[in-house]
Amino acid sequence: MFTSKPSALRKVRRPPILFAEWFVVLNGCVPLVMLMYDARYRQLGADPIRNALQVTGAMSLFLLIATLSITPLQRISGFRDLVKSRRPLGLMSFLYASAHVLIYVGYDRVWDWADALSELSQRRYLQAGALAFLIMIPLAITSSPNMMRLLGSRQWKRLHKCVYVAAIAGAIHFWMQSKANFYLQVGSFIAVGILLMTRVANRWEPRRSTRIT
Amino acid sequence: MSDSITTKKLYLNRRKWIKAATLATSVPASAAAYRIMQPIDVGVPLQPKLGNWSKSSTFQSSPLGDLLGGDWKTPLYDLTHLNNFHEFTTDQRAVAEKARDFVTDRWTVEVGGIVERPIRLTIDEIREQFPIEERTYRMRCVEGWSMVIPWAGFPLAALLERVRPTSKANYVAFQTLHDPKQMPNQIPGELSWPYDEGLRLDEAFHPLTIMATGLYGRRLPPQNGAPIRLVVPWKYGFKSIKSVVKINLVEDQPETAWNRAAAHENGFYANVNPEVDHPRWSQATERRVGEFFRRNTLPFNGYEKQVEHLYRGMDLNVHF
Fold this sequence. Notes:
The complex is a heterodimer of chains A (213) and B (320). Chain A has 213 residues and is mainly α. The radius of gyration of chain A is 19 Å and the shape is globular. Chain B is an alpha+beta fold and 320 residues long. In chain B, the strands form 2 sheets. In chain B, strands 1, 4, 5, 8, 9, 10, 12 and 13 form an 8-stranded mixed β-sheet that branches. In chain B, strands 3-2-11-6-7 form a 5-stranded mixed β-sheet. Chain B is globular, with a radius of gyration of 23 Å. The mean pLDDT of chain B is 87. Classes of the chains: A mainly alpha (213), B alpha+beta (320). At the A-B interface, helix 1 of A face helix 2 and helix 4 of B.
């Protein structure tokens, strides 16, 4: 019965893990591993949970910005292999976002879901963060080449444009929770803004690839 | 011949090697970058790093030095936030705060008594003259908890040899600083001040007995007995007297603070012994700070092989 599967559903042989993936995943895990080490050795200062939340949140947003900057950077540099690091970067961003949420619910709210939800209903910055995280879930699930084929290129692209909403929501969340030191917060906004503008600008440019007649 | 083949293979695989090298160097670089942006913060001001300090001493590689059997070191935060230092407060978790401003710059240690050459050393002279090494010991508190502490220090024997005890000397008596201005809890109470402790001469000369001046590669924080303290790893923690100013060699067994306060609870020897219970609780098990379950307490805190000969023929139920 499985032989009648549409071709899009059939799995292709798993390709070898690429250098770009190794590079992003190994380096991307460094902060997480060191954070866990610091937590084990009580080196996270007077407010360890807040510290861990800040590290995971900032890592998630910065990795998301890095994910978004891959396409423009590739265009500028002409370095084609760069695109191979886009998916692992996005997934690492999701990993940190998940860790961030788990630390919030598990440690900050001590698994008190009712408390977490009542906080969520009251605080705008939590709503922005939750929106960003909720958007990232389907994007992470559909990030594999198999899912891309299943959805079809156009659908997939349409869905993954939502990443900009997640980035903007993430930047707002980052902005609203901070009390001082606005450099990183402002920087994130500017970065997301520039990246969004390059995308919009691209739409008006004549498409090179389809012009072969 | 085979060498040149390998070389050729390597040459052909150079792209792989470049990639591997990139991975191998980028990860430590990321780690370093992370550490710069996220420095270690134990929630207390860190002490200056130790100078003349060797991690791998000849002691550690000697049969005596095989002491730990793979125990985890207790995190610095716990070492510096769970202290019994009644001179400051009896609240173990508050000693760090109360002792924060303890000044120990102009410290001197007098070593005298029945010796040929009594001396008086400043803390700087001690730091210069006695090469220190790392000694990671278990510390078992009489209250039933324990830690694993990477001390830095030197054998007490080195200090005692300097003053040359005469043949009449049988015991060593130690004294903590008496300074109620700096130590707010040095008020009349359970303990008499200054805190004092004592060892038998052979215990004092045992190579495991050290004067510690640091932990985790840094100078001793005030709450851990800055600037210099005794560490006797096979005895209950209260024997390891903190912030020592006087060391006297004496003929008779000296009086000691906790023994004076409650002789039936705290013996002069106070060797860690799971078989001799404290009058108010069992000493058979202990809670290792950071662990969930209690562990069995070991005879002589696990240093039985090294020190058991000191007490041969003694009834440890009497001399507890």
